[in-house]
Structures are given as structure tokens and as C-alpha cells.
Amino acid sequence: MLIRAATYRLHVFDWSQKGFGAIKRYNQVYNLLKKPEHPPPLGSMKLALLSLLVAFVLQCVQARFRPWGWNHHHYRPILINPSAQPDLPSAQQASNSAASAGLNLTNIQGDVLIGMRKITETFFFFKITKIRTFKSQLGSTILPMITSTDDMLSVTTQPTTALNVAFSQRGLTALGVRDNLGDSLFANGQLSGASDLGDKTSQWVPQFSASNIDGVFLLASDSIENVNILLFQLQASLQGSISEVYRVQGQARPGDQQGHEHFGFMDGISNPAVTGFSTPHPGQTVVPPGIILLGEDGDSKQRPSWARDGSFLVFRQLQQRVPEFNSFLLNNAPSQPNMTLQQNADLLGARMMGRWKSGAPIDLAPLADDPVLAADPQRNNNFDYTHPNFDINTDQSHCPFSAHIRKTNPRADQSAISNQIIRAGIPYGPEVTSDETASGTSSSTPSLERGLAFVSYQSSISSGFAFIQQSWANNPSFHICE
Ligand code: HEM
């Protein structure tokens, strides 16, 4: 019976095609997330100078703004820390790793390496309306407010609200940047790649098809009030030089669901360990920094020097229809003996995802959840689909080939260092209401829409996100075992 469940060739984007519309709406935008220590208006200054400038400016800003209470440290964490997710390195550990790998963590924006951990995060997509004003404010006011990776690693250095910024190709062009960044999917913009990804742009949020997004501010804090205060200050400092195109407000789910996405599965467990930042946990794939960061060791492309330590950001708003997902599991549950219908439905869900809702991997716990395993980062990512006396090319008794995590990171099925991404998204939308549960149908009220604000970072969109979605997730022939 288990084998029968294994024959479901479902993955995250197939789900909607299979009729229960788990994921309906998707948008996507490609942005370059780069600490603007060398924003376009600064012209041709060399990186070394600019790095020094960053350190200097940051210190000045802290001294200058603290007395006024503007975004100063408030010593409350702005990140969640569920036990299933591996701990971030301490500031000292990260600084030691960075020193030995020659990485400068003050030069990397704070969201790129830390994963899916924000308590609340707003994505503020904007269009630049007054280029000269925007350019000058970007260099003078916004740059000192940008949160770096080392800022994020300790509660004592986290700002009240972390701020990052990324630009689309359209935005860079508007700012006068003509450099070739070496990524054609980024240069051509999200619309041009949509059909290759299997997207129907009629299902995109219209603002993403309109091709007028120049950039996005990412604001993360422990409360939406704090995010909104910084957003207000940010807009005031930009003196009317941008207009809002679209906004997505994400937040970690409440209570014991913190860290879980809306279908109920613990998320943010498996991200690659980046050399120069984190020490690998057992089973974690290790990648050189250049797989995620431009211009670093492992990045195979030529990049302009100012782009060093930037990363390409892929954003997708993926709607999740939770009541429909739950009905699908119940209606298609296997019939394992000695298990209730709900237990069989949970088994199907776990085999579709590759993990139980707790986060325990089915490769290690194929028949029943194991919450102790789930909560142990020394064990919960330590598997690669190989098992003694089983042939990895045919064995689906532990984890089906179609499971989301096996489709998106095949581990020992196929070595794929260059296809690794850092996932840094966050759920958006409210909890399922009792009316939705009773009717088994997602509400069509816009404010009740929920899903995943998916974010991935990579130094190559075509090897990272686009490859995973196109060549693995959306490809019914991956993997073929018959
Ligand atoms: C609504 C949409 C999605 C949901 C609900 C979702 C949920 C999850 C969950 C629960 C996990 C397991 C937790 C973990 O290993 O950290 C996971 C892992 C992962 N997901 Fe997704 N995901 C979604 C979309 C995507 C997309 C669009 C991609 C990329 C194209 C993707 C790529 C990955 C990768 C690479 C992993 C890690 C696999 C591993 O290393 O074992 N996911 N996802």
C-alpha cells in the first residue's frame, strides 16, 4: 500500500493541476539583492574603499540615530528559533568562518544567508518616480539603514526592524547601471521566463505582469507596527521619489505552528551550509559562497566588481488552499491497516512533502511521525535516500521520488551543488477560519488569502530557482523509476 502512495507523481506545482487547486496564484520577480555600498550614483569607486566606507557609515549612523530612537536596537529577537531549524552560527562563529574563507559579512545584506526565520516581514515593491532624488537618498540615507548579515546574528546587534533592498533590471537601468550582471533571466525580467516555468501569467497578481517594478524593500521585525514605522520613515526620507506598486505582508504562523507553512509542515529545515558563514549540520549540503553570492569563490561568471556579495533574489507569491489540500489528503488517503483515516491522510501528506508535519523526514521515519527526530537538527536533515539493501534507483518505500523535498533537492539521487538555493520566504495571510474549515473551501475574500511568500537567493537564477522548478519540480520524468 505504501508503494501505491508512492506512485503519486505530485509535487508542489502539480498539485493544482491534479485538481484540488492547492496553489493557484503565482507571481515572480527577479531582483538583485545587493548591499548598496556602491550604489550607482557613486560611480566608479573601488570596492575596498567602499567596504571601509560601509563600516564607517554604519558606526556613524548608530551613534547619530540612537539618541533619537530611530530603529535602534531593542534587544528583542526579530527571528524565530523553532527547535527543528538548525541554529544560526553565533556572531563569533560566523566571524571566525568568514575570516578563514575571506568573506566580509558586513558587505552581505542580512536576509541572504539566514533562511526562513523572520517573525514578520513586509515586501514593499516600488517604482522609482524621481530618479535624481532617489539616487541621492539611496546613497546618503538608505545605505546607513541597510542591515548586514553580521547585524542579524545577535539580538544585541539586530535593529528594531531590519531593512534590505533589491533592484530589478528595470530599476538598475533607471539608475543608469549598464553593466552586464551575467544572468539573462534577471536581465530579461520575470515575464520572459514565465512560460518556461509552466506559469500562466493570467494567474499572476496583475502588478507582477505590469513590468513596472524597479525594486523591493524587505522590512523584518518582531511586529507589524515596527515594520510600518520604519516603512513610514523610509518613505519620508525618499521624499516622494518612489511609489508603491504592491505589498506582501508575511508573518510566522502563531503558537505551536511557528516555523510551519500553511499546509502545516515545518519549513526552513534544509538550506545549504555556506562556507565562510555556517558550520554544516549532519546531512547538510556544503556549498562554496559563490553558489549564493556573486563574485565569491564558486561563482563561475564574470561580474562587475561592485556586484560582489550581491545575490539574485527570486520572489514568488504562492497561494495555498489549505481546506482543499486537507480534503484531498482525506479523499485520497491510502488504507494502511490499523490506522485511522486521519492517520492515513497524514501519511499521504508526509509522502507528498517528504517530511511529516513535525519536520521528521520520511526517509528516516517512513511509517509514523517521530517528533523527537523532528526536533533534533543533528539528525533531522541527515539522510540522502540511500539505504543498505535497497536500490536508490528504485526504492520508494522510504521516500517517493515525487516527494517535494526529493524533487527539489535529490541528494544522493543526483549530485547538484550548483543547483542549491537559500530559501528565505515566510508564510502570508491569516489562519484558516472556522467557516473555511466547515465548508472545506478557501474563502474568496482577498484578505483571507494565505500562502507562501517564497524567496530564494542564488548567484545564478538559471542554475538555482529556475532549474529546480523547471528541470526537477515541474518535470514529470524526474525521477523515472519504471
Ligand atoms: C507553497 C509552496 C511551497 C511549500 C508549501 C513548500 C514547503 C516546503 C517544506 C515544508 C519543505 C520541508 C522543510 C525543509 O526541508 O526545510 C520544503 C523544502 C524545500 N523546498 Fe519547498 N515549498 C514550496 C515551494 C517551493 C518552491 C517553489 C521551491 C523551488 C522551486 C521549493 C524548494 C524547496 C527546497 C529546495 C527544499 C529543501 C529540500 C531539501 O533540501 O531536502 N519549494 N518546502
Write up what this structure looks like.
Helix content is 29%, strand content 13%. It has helices at 2-6, 14-20, 47-65, 91-101, 131-142, 149-152, 169-174, 184-188, 190-193, 206-209, 224-237, 322-331, 341-353, 371-374, 404-408, 434-439, 465-473; strands at residues 29-33, 120-128, 161-167, 215-221, 242-251, 273-274, 286-287, 311-319, 422-423, 426-428, 451-458. The protein starts with a helix and ends in a 9-residue tail after the last helix. It has 482 residues and is α+β, with helices and mostly antiparallel strands. It has a domain at 29-319. It contains 17 helices and eleven strands. Protoporphyrin IX containing FE is lined by residues 12, 23, 261, 263, 265, 267-270, 318, 320, 353, 355, 404-405, 408-409, 423, 451-452, 454, 465, 468-469, 473. The site of protoporphyrin IX containing FE has 25 residues, from helix 15, strand 11 and helix 17.
List keywords for this structure.
globular, two-stranded parallel ribbon, alpha+beta, 482 residues, 17 helices, nine-stranded antiparallel sheet, 11 strands
Number of E-type strands: 11
Helical content (DSSP H or I, runs of 4+): 25-40%
What is the N-to-C order of secondary-structure elements (H for helix, E for strand)? HHEHHEHHEHHHHEHEEEEHHHHEEHEH
Rg over C-alpha atoms, rounded to the nearest angstrom = 22 Å
Individual helix count: 17
Note poorly predicted spans. Answer: 1-26, 35-69
Task: Sum up the overall morphology in one term.
Answer: globular
